[in-house]
Amino acid sequence: MSPESAPPQPNQSQPGQPLLEVDSLTVDIDGEVGKHRILDDVSITLEPGEPMGLVGESGSGKSMTLRTILGMLPPAATVVEGEVRFRGRNILTLGSDRRYDQKVRGTGISMVFQEPAIALNPVMKVGRQITDAIAEHKGLSKRASHDLAIELMDRVGIANPERRVSDYPFQLSGGMRQRVMIAAALAQEPEILLCDEPTTALDVTIQAQVLDLFRTMQQEKGLGLLYVTHDLAVVAQLCTSISVMKSGKIIEHGNLQRIFDEPQEDYTRRLLSATPRIDDGVQLERAT
Amino acid sequence: MSVEPLASQTTPQARFTLPLPAFLRRHNLQLWIGLAIMSIIVAILAIGPLFVTADPNRQDLLNAFGPSSLAHPMGTDQLGRDILSRFLNGGRVDLMVAVIAVIVPFILGTVLGALAGYFGRWVDVVIMRLADIVSAFPFYVLVIVLVFVMGNGMASIFVAISLVSWVAYARIVRGEVLVLREEEFISACRASGLSTPRILARHVVPNTVSQGIIYGMSDIVLNIGVVVTLSFFGMGIVPPTADWGQMMNDGQQYMGTGNYGLILWPGFAVVLVSLALALIGDGLTNILKPKR
C-alpha cells in the first residue's frame, strides 16, 4: 500500500489494541410507520486474527451491523449513536449524511456477499472484477492485473484459472462465483473480512468446500473474520467466539465452547436446540 | 384397478405447428436480414458512384424528364440531371448525416442519464427538468427553429438533432441506472473501495449501453426521417447537393404529370433503410441482453 499522508494511519497495531471496535452503535431507520430502531447499543470487539460468528434470526440486525461497519447503510437509516473504530481510529461519523473513511474499504475491511449470482457485474469478465479495485488504487496495467487475477483465482481454488479469468459470471457455477467473490474481497489484503451468509445460497457440498476455503484463508492470513449466519453448525466449524443478536441487540457474547456448553440466555438455548447436531441420538455417517 | 403402462396412454396429438417460430428462436433472423439489406445498401452507395460517372449536378435542360436510357438508367429529373447519380450521392449524404447525428446524442444522453440516475437529488432534478423542457417542444418545431437560427446545412442539422434527441437516451439510461444502483454488485463495488467515477464508468454505464445502442438503431431511422423532412421543406442539405428528401420534394411537384421516377427511388430507399435498421435493432435486442 502506498504511504498515505493524511490522516495518519497507524499501520502497526499496538499490542493489546483490538482490530475492530463497534462501540454502542445505535441506528434508526425511517419506515412507513415512523422511526424504527434497527440496531440498539451494539458493541463488538474483534481481535486481530479472530474469527467471530454473529448469529441470530432473520431481521435481528446482523446484516445491518455489517453494512454499518462498511458505511453502507440505506439512505433512510441514521446513525444515532456510537463509533466504529478500526485500529483505534473512528471511521464512521454520526447523522444521516454520515461520512465514512472510504480508504478503509477493501484495504482494511472487505466483505463477501450472500448471493454471488447478483453480487457480480454481469457484463464484466470475472478476472477484471477481482482486480478492479486494486488496479484503480495501484494503477496496475492490464497485463499485470490479468496475471494477478489468475494468481488470486488459483489461490481460492478455482481450477484452470488461466481460462476462467476471461469468463463472465453467468458462465460460472454458484460455488465458483462465490470463490471469485472471495478472491475479489481478499485481493487488497484486508485485515477484516465481513461475511454476510456467504454459503446460504450454495448447496451443501459446495458449502463445505467454501467453508474450508474460508478457514484456510483465515488461518493463512490471520484475518479477523466477522461471519454472519443463522446456521450455528457453520459457526462451530469456523469461529472461536460467538455473538448472538436478537431484535437489534447483542444479547450474548462469548467463547464458542462456552456458548455451546452453557448458554446463559434462554434465546440462545432455543437457537442451539433448533440446530440439528451430529451427536444427537441417531448415529449418522459423516459426509465429507 | 390395473396400472396402465405409460407408453400406451394416448397423448393428445401434437398440433401441427410451423417450424418457423423455433427456427426464429434459434437463429437471429431479424438481425441477419437487417444486416444483409443494410450492407447491400451501403455497398451500393459506397461503390456505386465509382461506376456511375455522370455528374449529379450537371444540368441538361433539353433532356429534362428523359426516360430510362443507357446513359441515364433511372432517367433524368426536371433539370435534366441524372437521377441515378443523384440518388447514389444523395444517399451517401443522408446516411452519413443520420449516423453521425446519432453519436453525439448517444454519448451526451448516456452521460447525463447516468449522472441523473446514480446521484439522484438535485443532479437528477436539474437534468431531467432540462429534458422535460426540450421534450415539451414538438420535435420538428424545435429542430426547424434551430436550423432557422443557424442557417441551412449539415452542421446545423447535427447541432439541432444533438440538442434535441439526447433526451431519449438520457431517459432510457436514467431508468436503467435507477434499477442498477440498487443492485448488489454495485454495493460490492463500493465495499471493495472503488471510487464513484470508476463505478459509474466501468460498472454502471456498461450495463446500460445495450439499451442505448438498441434505441440508437431506431434513432438512425428517425434521423434519416429528420434530414429528409428538413430537405423536403428546403431547410436541410443545401441545393444543389443531392439528397433523397430534396429529390422527393422535387418529384412530388411533377407526380401529376406522370414523372414518378424522381420520387419513387428515393422513397423506396428510405423505406428500405428504415426497415433494415428496425430489423437490426430488434435483432440486437435479443443478443445484447446481459446474461445472468
Number of strands of chain A: 10
Largest beta sheet of chain A: what is the strand line-up?
6-7-8-3-9-10
Number of domains of chain B: 1
Number of helices of chain B: 11
Rg measurement of chain A, Å? 19 Å
What is the distance, rounded to the nearest whole angstrom, between the alpha carbons of the first and last residues of chain A?
40 Å
List low-pLDDT spans of chain B: none
Instruction: Supply the CATH superfamily name of chain B.
Output: MetI-like
Number of domains of chain A: 1
Kindly report the name of the CATH homologous superfamily of chain A. Answer: P-loop containing nucleotide triphosphate hydrolases
Calculate the mean pLDDT score of chain A and round it.
79
Q: What is the CA-atom radius of gyration of chain B, in angstroms?
A: 25 Å
Quaternary form:
heterodimer
Percentage of residues in DSSP E strands of chain A: 15-25%
Question: What form of chain B results from the Cα inertia axes?
Answer: globular
CATH architecture of chain B: Orthogonal Bundle
What would CATH call the class of chain A? Answer: Alpha Beta
Intertermini distance of chain B: 48 Å
Strand fraction band of chain B? under 5%
CATH fold title of chain A:
Rossmann fold
